Amino acid sequence: MNTLEIKNLHVSIDNKPILKGVDLVVNEKEVHALMGPNGNGKSTLLAAIMGHPKYEVTEGTVTLNGENVLEMEVNERAKAGLFLGMQYPQEINGVTISDFMKAALNTRSEKPIPLFTFIRSLDSAIKKLEMKSEMAHRYVNEGFSGGEKKRNEIMQMMLLKPKFAMLDEIDSGLDVDAIKVVAKVLNEQIESSNMGTLIVSHYDRFYQMVQPTHAHVLIDGKIVVSGGRELATKVDEQGYDWLQKEFGIEIKEEKSEVVRNAAGSLGTCAVKELSDVTQ
Amino acid sequence: MSLNNYIVDAGFHELTLDLSNSTDFKLQSKKNVSADVLVHLIGKGQANLEVTLEKDSKLNLFYLNTAEEAQLNESYILNRDSQLDLAYGDFNDGTCERNSDVYLVENGASVYLKSASLVKSERRLVYRFNHQAQYTYGDMQNFVVTLEKGKLSLHAIGKIEKNAANSETHQTSRVLNFNATERASVFPQLFIDNNEVKASHAESSGQVDPDQLYYLQSRGLSPEESVSLIVKGYLSSILENIKNDEIKERLMESIERKVDEVCSR
Fold first, then answer.
1. C or N terminus of chain A, fewer CB within 10 Å?
2. How much of chain A is in helix, strand and coil states, percent to nearest 5?
């Protein structure tokens, strides 16, 4: 049984505390939805688990099957079975997706993966995600649309077969059809490889397609409420204000994030689509 | 001293130039033909190279420099409506000094230059486009990676003469430094003697982007493997003009081998 365990995790960026004691256990096959207003630490939690150099862990532990993740280099964490589907994946000029994935797979095994096997699994992943076949020969994320970048993250997850996948707003930038495709792939992988999953998303429609077994609300660097699938639905219907009434929790939302979203980014678009769907 | 004279026909040609035999080397493309020439520079020494493109010809010339020590004087004469695609892959360990002069002497001539340098020792490069006729076009893209003890000076020069109206000259130079102690100096220069022209230059220099490194590492690549992949991608820009897949692959392999050698140290 694979287990990712986070205990009393405190994380700072530039000496500013962001996470203030997060406890979370994710077992294999479980799907955890991580919710909360922007700027409360969701992305920070995922990035700190993956080992982004900007995020400083000041207290607490992260273990994968009992092994101390925090002592590992970023690439060792990946090889140990962690995967982060990023919100803003990097562009890497001159490096094709094919070369990148070949290198990522070869570094995990004793001897190089046979070229034919590699091409077959890359092609199959690309096809399943309904991407164009020439995708393999494009430079990593360069000139990709928002949706292509997100699919590319999922494509990497398919090839690397992690024990735990953390997906940071993987559904924003995707239209409804694309979300369906991604959700299907994700469900298949959970089923076939018992992958544990930690999802950050603002939208219930993604949670409708990838049924979370657990849900958590992260506010001001702490998980304030945990529950099952019904919690995700409640947040979607009622927002976060009820937390204030029921638990006396003060909600703060980072203003800059809100402004960025309001300025015509994908987030706003998706909200509009969602309301169209529910009407 | 030996004198080599080549008149190139259409198709692919591969030559090796051993600088130890202090060489003068002449290459001429025939009228109307399109040819690809790969030149291996090896040995240690000096060479004068003269390349002439006849009317309406197209020459794709690629230098793969693995010479121990090279001192090169090159001149290119581009006649009416000819096109030169010039690519330099400088992956040698030793010192290198190159003066490369492109003369666009007749109307409609064009040159596209791409250079990739892996700098481990002292290197002095001068690339000069001399626009001497109307409607001539020049574009230069330099990619430099400086490594330990590497020292580079790169002069990128575009010169449009008075009678070269309606010409364009452009250049971009990008430098990737491995640590703060390495030195690379780029000197872009534009000399324009006619008002009816277009000209531009752009330079950048910096270290490997830490966010790119993090991204690659998050997929399991070690820091060394990540850097090596980024550098390969960066230097492989010079292969873009090469149409022949087999040659392209061979050159890519030689870039990869060299970068792996350097990055695994």
1. C
2. 45, 25, 30
Mean pLDDT score of chain A, rounded to an integer? Answer: 88
Tokens of B182: 């390495």
Domain A3-278: assigned CATH number: 3.40.50.300
Q: Is 70 exceeded by the pLDDT of residue B118? A: yes
A92 and B221 within 8 Å at the Cβ level: the answer is no
Q: What is the pLDDT of residues A190-246, one digit of tens each?
A: 999 999 999 999 888 899 999 999 999 999 999 999 999 899 888 888 888 888 888
Q: Give CA B32 to chain center in angstroms.
A: 24
Reported ipTM: the value is 0.89
* DSSP class per residue in B37-94: EEEEEESEEEEEEEEEE-TT-EEEEEEEE--SEEEEEEEEEE-TT-EEEEEEEE--SS
Q: Which residues of A touch B216 (CB under 8 A)?
A: 92, 100
Mutate which of B176, B204, B214, B260 to test chain A, going by most A C-beta atoms within 10 A?
Answer: B214
Residue B51 CA to residue B63 CA, distance in Å, equals 13
pLDDT in tens, A70-92: 999 999 999 999 999 999 999 99
Of B212, B215, B263, which to mutate for an interface test with A (greatest number of A Cβ within 10 Å)? B215
Chain B contact residues (CB < 8 Å to A): 209-212, 214-223, 225-226, 229-230, 232-237
